[in-house]
Amino acid sequence: MAKPNPAGAVWLRWENSAKGRYYEVRLQVDLLGDWVLTKTWGSQYSGLGRLSHEAWSLIEEALKSLEKVHQQRLKHGYRLVQQQGYDPTQASLF
Fold this sequence. Notes:
two-stranded antiparallel ribbon, 7 strands, five-stranded antiparallel sheet, globular, 18% helix, Nuclear Transport Factor 2, Chain: A, 94 residues, alpha+beta
């Protein structure tokens, strides 16, 4: 599996139009060299939502977490509407 360019970011956004919900993830390298997966989710209309972070020392661990999020979103009726740097259907980076 190819590794992402540390200068670039991975970003994906899913939406569930029926429920008016969104879910986004960003994967970036922090200043200490760890891979940080930032998740944001909430309502498309009210502006209310939440944010969480996960830090991983290995890119493979971060990608497993990202793939898990992708599978959960699909299972819950979301569809992938935007992406940058990662195609979960191809499991390829950049």
